[in-house]
Amino acid sequence: MSTVAERSAARKRALLEEKVLDELDDRLGSSKWLRSALDKVFPDHWSFMVGEIAMYSFVILIVTGVYLALFYSPSSAVVVYHGPYRPLDGQKMTQAFESVVNLSFSVRAGLVMRQAHHWAANIFLAAVAFHMGRVFFTGAFRKPRELNWTIGLTLLIVAMLEGFSGYSLPDDLLSGSGLRVVFSIIQSIPFVGVWLAFTLWGGAFPGTSVFFTRLFVIHEFLFPLILLGLLGAHLGMLWHQKHTDFPGPGKTEHNIVGSRLWPQYAVKSAALLTFIAAVIFGLGGFVQINPIWVYGPYNPARGSAGTQPDWYVGWLDGALRLWPHWEFRSFGHEIANPFFPGILLPGIVFTAMYAWPAIDRRLFADYGEHNLLDRPRDKPLRTAVGVAALFFFADLTVASATDLIGNALNVSFELLIEILQYGSFVAPIVAGVVAYKVCVLLQVQNAHPIQRPVGGVMVRDARGAFHTLGAEHAHAAPEGNGHEAAADSEETALEAAGGEPAPG
Amino acid sequence: METLHDGTETPHEEAFELPRVITGTHGPEEGAGAGTPWPDDVPPEQDDSWYPLKDDPRKARRMEYLIAALWMVTGGCGVGLMICYWTGGQAQVEGALLASAFGCLGAGLVLWARYLLPGQDVVGSRGEHYSELEERAAVVASLSRGTDAMMSRRGFLVKKVLVPVGGIFGIAAVWPLASLGPRYGRALYHTAWYPGARLVDQFGRPIKASDVEVDGVLTVFPEGHADPNTPQNAMSPAVLLNIGGALMHERKINQGFEVKSGGNGLVCFSKICTHAGCAVTLFNVLSMQLVCPCHQSTFDILEDCRPVFGPAPRPLPQLHLGVRPDGYLFAVSDFVEPVGPGFWDRGGPA
Ligand code: HEM
Ligand code: FES
Predict the structure, then answer these.
(1) Beta-carbon contacts of residue B32 (< 8 Å; ≥ 6 apart)
(2) What pLDDT score was predicted for residue A36?
(3) Residue B242 lies in a domain
(4) Which of A155, A318, B50, B202 would be A396's cystine partner, CB 3.0–4.6 Å?
């Protein structure tokens, strides 16, 4: 029931909207695009929100990061600390370190912003990784979306570098040790390594006064710019190609079922943004992260046990621990140890990931276009490869905490490392085989609809009535394209049910 | 509906109602001949005005109040934040207020979307994300019209002139990158240790042989270079150990770089890990091992710091120690091999 007042308010609103849109259209001809944008259909599935979580934590990274940048000082000039944090009083430290301590203790809202920024970075990368998993296991990267897979993967790599460069800015004992290791990794590259490391650091480790300026420019400007550009392309492509969807009643390769951008999708998406902000700022206020004043300023002659990088670099740190003591020497030259786990391994891993859409095409001899997703069980081989990769990364990540785990479980780190060395081969193979078997099993179970409750799937419609969807059983078709069959029969059903063809 | 469908049969019409309100059809192709195709992206007018609380104005009203209350909490948190900030700020309070503010804002939005906004799915056409064949042909035509105009009979300009010139200019353009870093020369072959350099501690105080007790360990630097935070000094830190006179004889490898006096047996090794350059800080006196905290490389002191576990490929280089008549320890020379992690030219002449 709308009252008179409400109706007149709606009329006023419409007039205003019309006026603004008219003015815009006079200049930009924007109406055609805007109409299709506002009505654009987005499918609903919880797993499609993961990419949005990544996007929104990136937004929060930018907001909090700008605040931090107003106080950070990228300088390796040595100062003596005299501030509110007494335990550090009188200590020599770089201005970079001092500025971060001040940001944490002397700048209002500084600590919350700093910790929120760090939490957001960890959540961002977790969401990106999860999102990539979603895209992989459902085959969303298949034609026509291979390009977006490539852009997404580049985003992942740049995001990791961005995270690491930020972690390194405070010049504390942990981050300094991390930089030391990275310098050594770069230095180990055959032929150009030493030159490259000296070029980046402006000299031998720990670098000259230019180093933190460069790191700051990289973290504050270069990488974010690349991320923003790539993200724009990523989302632009998504917009143009439209989102994939899982097969289901009424869904075909040619339609898209979901909510309109305006208002349903926009409101839900805004809610997601605020929830992510709530979680990140809640963590930022309550859960300490990277307390650099506990670690103290960096000093190449010091170190501490139990040092871990942020989680997303853990697999590389673990690889450095698991790679045996080998290095290769001949003709007066040497390929140093860190090269293999630090450069070669990520090189192979990322190359394989970039190549995956092409590999997948050949593997399944499937060169066609797909807007409907695979259920992971329907492509056991792909799922097995993905699960194997996850176990490989998990093994390496666990290895990055061997000392902590060893202490906690009271086993020697030697034993743990040896187990994890074997584990890096065995775990992926076993997990892959098991995953394959499980997929096949799930398929077979589905192939006997007799084992399901008679009547198939119960659905409740918008008016509250219950219905059974027998056609769902077509999912179970053991070979051939079960999904399409299901979708097609639904379509027939729709038409039979009297769905009038849409007027143009 | 009880019959099992093989995916091709049509379900019973009478019994079948749509699971959700989907009133569109499935794209222009399927609705062939039924009106004009949809414009790209725009679903046809589909009635999705129904929402869960539409038929229950009282519940809807209550929902509106609830949403309003939630958003007012957000406003209240905003006020709280300002007060908190005004009075000097406190991280936990700020975190709590920010989290509640955003949380309540989001909760209100979700309730709004869930109960007061149309929730049915609509069906849109995917349209086509690719171009018609004629358009592709037209692009090729345009491209080659332009290229032909440029290249026919003047191809040599591009191939023989522009490409080489571009190459030269490209190199010139990136040349300034060279000024980013100095030539590294022999930088990795030497540390700040020099013949006769006294061993000093982190405060620059010289060390006597008697300053380190048996089983004691001390980080030492070359005199005048006790600040390791510079590129000149960062590779110099070393570990001075007193393993005692008795153990001195049990060593399986011995470069003869040690100092023995009375019950003392002093040896000194580079503190920079040969794996990836961390400081080797952990000393296990029971097993007489040095352990690197970064990746747990373990060095056996009695074998002149040969790596016995972990990824470190080489022993920690040993410093040749001497004692001056006044009792102070000094380095006879710099380390005889490059310290720290490996690099391409490391095997070459020092
Ligand atoms: C900075 C990191 C990233 C952000 C912010 C981001 C954001 C998004 C968003 C919001 C979507 C649509 C919603 C969704 O499907 O979740 C999407 C889709 C997609 N993303 Fe990402 N993404 C990132 C990284 C990646 C990575 C690492 C990959 C894979 C290597 C990837 C591949 C894709 C693909 C193929 C799609 C289309 C999926 C479909 O239509 O089903 N993205 N991305
Ligand atoms: S740096 Fe010492 S073990 Fe890796």
Answers:
(1) none
(2) 86
(3) yes
(4) A318
- Cα–Cα distance, A10 to A3 (Å, whole number): 11
In a domain, B64, yes or no: yes
In a domain, A165, yes or no: yes
Residues A41 and B122 sit within 8 Å (Cβ to Cβ):
yes
Tell me what pLDDT residue B186 has. 87
Q: Quick one: tokens of B253?
A: 């490898």
Instruction: Give every residue of chain A whose pLDDT is below 50, as ranges.
Output: 1, 448-455, 470-504
Residue with tokens 């450069």: A343
For residue A50, give the ligand nearest its CA.
Answer: 1
Q: Is residue A101 domain-resident?
A: yes
pLDDT tens string B62-76? 999 999 999 999 999
What range defines the domain where residue B74 resides? 57-116
Between residues 419 and 478 of chain A, which touch chain B (CB distance below 8 Å)? 449-450, 454-456, 459-462, 465, 467-471, 473-474, 477
pLDDT tens profile B134-172: 999 999 999 999 999 988 888 899 889 999 999 999 999
* Residue B297 belongs to domain with CATH number: 2.102.10.10
- Retrieve residue B211's tokens: 């300053």
Q: How many CB atoms are located within 10 Å of the residue B174 CB?
A: 8
A213 and A254 co-located in one domain: yes
- The per-residue pLDDT for range B252-272, each reduced to its tens digit, is 888 889 998 878 899 999 999
Q: A45-71: per-residue pLDDT in tens?
A: 999 999 999 999 999 999 999 999 999
Q: Which domain holds residue A183?
A: 46-303
Q: What is the ipTM of this complex?
A: 0.86
Q: Do B199 and B313 share a domain, yes or no? A: yes
In a domain, B260, yes or no: yes
Query: Do A242 and A274 lie in a common domain?
Result: yes
Question: B276 in ligand 2 pocket by Cβ < 6 Å?
Answer: yes
Is there a domain that residue A379 lies in? Answer: no
Residue labelled with tokens 């690491």: A164
pTM: 0.88
Which one has a higher pLDDT value, B329 or B260?
Answer: B329
* Structure-token match 């994939």, residue found: A244
Residue A317 forms part of a structural domain: no
CA of B159 to nearest chain A CA: how many angstroms apart? 31
B297 and B210 in a single domain? The answer is yes
| Contact residues of ligand 1, CB 6 A cut-off | A 48, 50-52, 54-55, 58, 128, 131-132, 135, 140-141, 145, 148-149, 152-153, 155-156, 159, 231, 234, 238, 243-244
Shared-domain flag, residues A33 and A97: no
Number of domains in chain B: 2
Residue identified by tokens 């605020």 is A274
Helix (H, G, I), strand (E, B) or coil at A94: strand
Written as one string, the DSSP assignment of B91-129 is HHHHHHHHHHHHHHHHHHHHHIIIIIS----EEEE---S
